[in-house]
Queue: 2 jobs
Job 1
Amino acid sequence: MEKILLKNLNNPGGHTLDNYIAGGGYRAVKEALKLGHDHIIQMVKDSGLRGRGGAGFPTGLKWSFIPKEVYPKYLCCNADEGEPGTFKDRGIIEYDPHLLLEGMIIASYAIGAISAYIYIRGEFAFGAKRLWEAIKEAYEKGLLGKNILGSDFSIDIYVHRGFGAYICGEETALLESIEGFRGQPRKKPPFPAVWGLYGKPTVINNVETLSCIPSIILNGPKWFSSMGSEKSPGPKLYCVSGHVNRPGLYELPMGTPLREIVYNHAGGIKGGRNLKAVIPGGVTAPMLIEKELDVPMDFDSLAKIGSMLGSGGVVVMDDTTCMVKAAYIINRFFSHESCGKCTPCREGTHWMTEVLKRIEYGEGKPGDVELLEGVCANIFGRTFCPLGDGAVMALRGALKNFRDEFAYHVENKRCAARGGFGAIGVWE
Ligand SMILES: Cc1cc2nc3c(=O)[nH]c(=O)nc-3n(C[C@H](O)[C@H](O)[C@H](O)COP(=O)(O)O)c2cc1C
Ligand code: SF4
């Protein structure tokens, strides 16, 4: 497949404005300014583009929810990329920042935004620097600021650096954080399209989503929807990490089978070992086992088998992996990142982690697996935002396929997967 999102990944200097323009960059903005707001929204709707931030919500439909008569309006680009196993937005930001800016200018024009924000996770210092440089270049060329390219459309883009909280990737916590408040989710409804940044209509889109926009404007919605799956068209970035020979970032048609991603593109399992499990879409996505590997990597196909595409972070685990340890590490992350606003998540993720820790350290008690299931049941569906549910889905995914391994740990105070070595003290 011709690269659309990663065409500048291995192009030294590809991130500069001159190189971007030389490769046809910013032609889509000129085209968009001629098309008009409604036409662009219709094109994005027709393309079938679905948000790449995790939920797969149709992008054109989201834009169409913005009320016309309320001012001002805002666009926020979600560049928080906090989901473990995910490094796709970083690839675009660091190597093709103008692709993102061009997508943001078009999106802002389509929804009538006067300002746009890029909320970038604090750890991405180099990415923020690349964005600042690109924004400066764009202002100098008249692509940002007042009356861009001589049109009656004006737009400013700001970079807002986060401070390392995973929850600030949740769209309403992100808005709170930009406004200078503690990053905690807001109650929905009202949704950000109605009550967003500073209480005004706001569209929040992921970096990869916005970076698809220029190519849709230039090549048309039919071209876009001819790629990938019927209900999830377009290109998709898959981040592959873990026990594979070629970990990395791969741009492939949406719906590429997981087996092809792991064995062809990522070169198969390291050292010729056997695959034990794969997390298909960031640690929130329930893990899959070998017999499920033919699933097309798109939103609906993964949902059908009880998992999710999420952020496209594929984490591969070979047969030496201890699933108790994996579940403990994942849960410890959720417990640490719980914002504390609601009790089931704040307390539940903490206790899940404590129980997993004692099982991992050979101190598990009879009934601990059932206790974990009980805690899961008390969290799921009872939390303020999806973080709590995500923690449950991750643990339930591990228990569904590897319950025996958890029970073995409790009973024998040691790990079956690691050749019988005791778990105590092996890992901190
Ligand atoms: C706990 C949590 C963390 C999230 N983190 C991110 C993130 O880092 N990046 C992102 O784009 N979306 C993240 N999301 C999803 C956003 O809330 C939102 O759905 C997304 O930015 C919308 O963009 P899209 O329509 O382009 O997918 C997160 C959601 C939750 C519940
Ligand atoms: S589910 Fe967790 S992260 Fe979400 S609001 Fe409640 S405590 Fe905060």
Job 2
Amino acid sequence: MITYRDAMALDLPVLVSMEKILFADSPWSMGQFKEEFKGVPRTHFFTVAVDGNNQIIGYAAVMVPAPGVEADVLTVGVLPEYRKAGIGTAFMEALENWASDKESNAMMLEVGVDNASAIALYESLGYSKISVRQNYYGTGLDALVMRKDL
Ligand SMILES: CC(C)(COP(=O)(O)OP(=O)(O)OC[C@H]1O[C@@H](n2cnc3c(N)ncnc32)[C@H](O)[C@@H]1OP(=O)(O)O)[C@@H](O)C(=O)NCCC(=O)NCCS
């Protein structure tokens, strides 16, 4: 059974190792995770999904820099063998609920223009494409900016 809990600082080495599988092109380093994690719980929320053996199988994070401003989805990832089972959707709903509690009125995110599965996930949840950021993930790697009103 899959369950969800807040991430802990102790989880960060596991998340760093999963980055290489989930985001091979631009994995976050331990330093980047630590920097973002400093915002927990005031401005940042990190959640993990764990399987029946307490192994982390996915994670997601969002930032609301100040109460009432737009939320920025920082990351969402699920190990390949656990995909298409609703975990990404559950993560996004948890991020949206947390952002709503921080009085955000909108969610923003960037996604690779060729990341069809993630774009399909976001569209299924009501996100709209609003612009393209060229070279966001590196030369020639453009990002789509998507937004949803909360
Ligand atoms: C994007 C990702 C998080 C989706 O996670 P997931 O747990 O598979 O998502 P869900 O099972 O909740 O999927 C929800 C909906 O998204 C869409 N979707 C998800 N994966 C899809 C795929 N491979 N093809 C088409 N649609 C897809 C579907 O509409 C799906 O609904 P359905 O299962 O009823 O058809 C996962 O594929 C992933 O970790 N990818 C690698 C990391 C990544 O790119 N993250 C996003 C960075 S912006």
